[in-house]
């Protein structure tokens, strides 16, 4: 009798999508006492970057992180520290397949927290140690899973695959162009992959490495293969962690948060700067009143943003800048990587003497020397505008030359 492996074909456009992130391994190939998913990059556990990547996608309703029993508390503290939402932590198994199966059960059976989550139409399965996953590939595999029942990201093989004979000599080699590396993310109609796991043998669960194979073997579902990007690789060896750190640093340097107060003309500068930067780097523009919105800024700082442009029209911008530095320090953002803080002081008045502006910049320069010891690179820019009738405008820029 054909297994009841769920219906195929296009589901409702707004159908629920959930993600299961297996994070229950011990990371033997990487070495060290800490399982690789909990190794920190820029002070933040690797798994948190992957959860964050999923959280940035609004149409993923639930994120199930599957960890070994001894790491449940650690995962809970990561979720709390980094403010992860939509996350349910589930107990892992002794193999990856068993962990994934445990993650799926939370939608189908009472899990240990007795919380039954709404069953999604489509479930994404993505290794927690593949932190560089973007919405585009996730959307592609989810749409393909809706139409075909299963889908998975693939990449060209780098090395040729060969088969060795029992005597340790070459038996044959595969024609590399005909084969692909199976990567993650993968996506499935929930009923198909859940049914497949329910029919799995212990051998499958203990020695298998391929979810797409289970859907084919037990639900006769040929997964749609989707070409993925180069950064879908899995952190497996130490070198992969170094590579991940280099990519994360590169990503951080491409993010800036523009902070202004809510006054109209300053907010206008915020808008113009955002528009001019957004085509080149990832920009977040925030208009807050520093003294009133600590919470909002704390969220930004704990969001691991590493570059800030603070635009102020206050008389003494250095006090505003000091407030930001204090909040940055309170946010426990690990300043392992230089934080760039550009303090832009807009001085729109009729009879501003340049001396006041220069005094201000000198104060900022002195402050910059102090905060540089904390790995915060502070720059001050002063924009002075004379009244329109004089038709003059001056801008002076002072950098910390120390
Ligand atoms: N019992 C297991 C084993 C692995 N995984 C997870 O499956 C993903 C991919 O597996 P792999 O790279 O093999 O991780 P490890 O098993 O930890 O690595 P190793 O084989 O080197 O020990 C990882 O996120 C890992 O945490 C899991 O959830 N449960
Ligand atoms: O075998 P490992 O546990 O190292 O990693 C799991 C990988 O096999 C898996 O993530 C992809 O190959 C896609 O199935």
Automatic annotation (TrEMBL):
Assembly description: Homodimer.
Main location: cytoplasm
Alphabetized Pfam families for the sequence: IspD, ISPD_C
Highest classification ranks of the organism: Eukaryota, Metazoa, Chordata, Craniata, Vertebrata
Domain D-ribitol-5-phosphate cytidylyltransferase C-terminal: 254-396
Keyword check for Nucleotidyltransferase: yes
UniProt-recorded Gene Ontology molecular function terms: D-ribitol-5-phosphate cytidylyltransferase activity
Catalytic activity: D-ribulose 5-phosphate + CTP + H(+) = CDP-D-ribulose + diphosphate; D-ribitol 5-phosphate + CTP + H(+) = CDP-L-ribitol + diphosphate; D-ribose 5-phosphate + CTP + H(+) = CDP-D-ribose + diphosphate
Keyword Transferase: yes
Signal sequence, start to end: none
UniProt cross-references to InterPro entries, sorted A to Z: IspD/TarI, ISPD_C, ISPD_synthase_CS, Nucleotide-diphossugar_trans
Protein task: Cytidylyltransferase required for protein O-linked mannosylation. Catalyzes the formation of CDP-ribitol nucleotide sugar from D-ribitol 5-phosphate. CDP-ribitol is a substrate of FKTN during the biosynthesis of the phosphorylated O-mannosyl trisaccharide (N-acetylgalactosamine-beta-3-N-acetylglucosamine-beta-4-(phosphate-6-)mannose), a carbohydrate structure present in alpha-dystroglycan (DAG1), which is required for binding laminin G-like domain-containing extracellular proteins with high affinity.
GO term, biological process aspect, one: isoprenoid biosynthetic process
Protein name: D-ribitol-5-phosphate cytidylyltransferase
Cellular location(s): Cytoplasm, Cytosol
Keywords, in A-Z order: Cytoplasm, Nucleotidyltransferase, Transferase
Source organism per UniProt: Melopsittacus undulatus (Budgerigar)
A single Gene Ontology CC term: cytosol
Enzyme Commission number, as recorded: 2.7.7.40
Family: Belongs to the IspD/TarI cytidylyltransferase family. IspD subfamily.
CDD domains xrefs: CDP-ME_synthetase (cd02516)
Pathway: Protein modification; protein glycosylation
């Amino acid at each position: 009798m054909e297994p009841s492996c769920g219906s195929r074909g296009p589901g409702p456009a707004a159908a629920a999508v959930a993600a299961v992130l297996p994070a229950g391994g011990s990371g033997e190939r990487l070495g060290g006492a800490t399982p690789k998913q909990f190794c920190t990059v820029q002070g933040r556990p690797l798994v948190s970057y992957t959860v964050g990547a999923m959280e940035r996608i609004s149409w993923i309703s639930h994120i199930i992180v599957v960890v070994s029993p001894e790491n449940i508390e650690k995962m809970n503290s990561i979720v709390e520290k980094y403010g992860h939402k939509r996350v349910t932590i589930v107990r892992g198994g002794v193999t990856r397949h068993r962990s994934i199966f445990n993650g799926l059960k939370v939608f189908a059976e009472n899990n240990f927290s007795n919380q039954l989550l709404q069953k999604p139409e489509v479930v994404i399965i993505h290794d927690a140690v593949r932190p560089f996953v973007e919405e585009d590939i996730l959307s592609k595999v989810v749409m393909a899973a809706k139409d075909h029942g299963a889908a998975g990201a693939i990449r060209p093989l780098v090395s040729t695959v060969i088969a060795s004979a029992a005597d340790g000599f070459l038996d044959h080699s595969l024609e590399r162009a005909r084969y692909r590396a199976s990567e993650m993310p993968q996506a499935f109609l929930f009923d198909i992959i859940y049914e497949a796991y329910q029919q799995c043998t212990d051998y499958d669960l203990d020695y298998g490495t391929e979810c797409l194979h289970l859907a084919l073997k037990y639900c006769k579902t040929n997964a749609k293969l989707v070409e993925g990007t180069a950064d879908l690789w899995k952190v497996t060896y130490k070198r992969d962690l170094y590579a991940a750190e280099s990519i994360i640093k590169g990503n951080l340097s491409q993010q800036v948060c523009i902070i202004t107060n809510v006054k109209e003309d300053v907010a206008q500068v915020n808008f113009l700067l955002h528009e001019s930067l957004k085509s080149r780097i990832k920009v977040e523009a925030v208009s807050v009143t520093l003294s009133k919105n600590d919470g909002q800024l704390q969220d930004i700082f704990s969001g691991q943003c590493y570059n800030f442009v603070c635009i102020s029209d206050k008389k003494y911008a250095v006090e505003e800048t000091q407030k930001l530095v204090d909040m940055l320090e309170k946010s426990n953002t690990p300043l392992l990587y230089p934080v760039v803080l550009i303090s832009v002081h807009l001085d729109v008045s009729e009879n501003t003497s340049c001396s006041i502006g220069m005094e201000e910049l000198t104060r900022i320069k002195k402050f910059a020397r102090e905060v540089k010891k904390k790995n915060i690179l502070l720059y001050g820019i002063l924009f002075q505008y004379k009244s329109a009738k004089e038709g003059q405008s001056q801008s002076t820029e002072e950098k910390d030359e120390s």
